[in-house]
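Entry type: protein chain
Record version: 2
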Amino acid sequence: MTTKIVGVRFKPAGKVYDFDGGAFVLAPGDDVIVETEQGLSFGTVAAPPKLVEELPPGPPLKKVYRLATARDLEQLQKNAADEKAAQAFCRKCIKELGLQMNLFAVEKSFDGSRATFFFTADGRVDFRQLLKMLVKELGVRIEMRQVGIRNQAKMCGGVGRCGRELCCASYLEKFEPVSIRMAKEQSLSLNPTKISGQCGRLMCCLVYEYDTYMDLKRSLPRIGSIVKTPSGDGKVIRHNAVGQRLTVRLADGSEIETPLGTIQEPTA
């Protein structure tokens, strides 16, 4: 049986989830109401519909309930206002209770029956009293969710040192592992202030060109090896992988930069 699958995103730069498009004629950018485990939710079509003969393994796909209407957009605006008020009240309660936590976002479900409070903290937080105060004030189901500092940056957004909107907030759907080795292999400064993002962690963009640098370096003699240059034998001390050039220290202590093509095989 052929099924029409459509990709729906609930947040900007969020993960794209597959839904059964049914008989709806959908295109990227269309606002839709879909069925989820939490009830009806508002989303935007991110991937155009495609026909598949066999569904991927796992639970059956939820369905697109209907196209969004003007009334649904009004509900979103109302939810946004409620979220702002809930966040202000929660911050007031946190201050009164003296809790060591940083509340940075509140999300209300589309039907308004549940509110999720996102916060960061150095360790575990006993927010039982806070929950009682929130339930009494808001009258909805409350969920407190502690997240990492990178997730906070993704949800709050901002501008990076490159002058552009944060990658995680604009298009990255998930975080890739980043290590200090990636900065070393790209000959970047290891000063933490220069290779860290707004979140204080290593910048996600260190991943982008890492594989390219590793491919380019495969053809270069290893640092510390002895090579023959037109100016004499010397030791490789630096790489310019993109320019395919080497910095070599000669026997007299001088340093030269020479193209890879002028280098002979490393000597024993």
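Comment: The chain has a mean pLDDT of 90.
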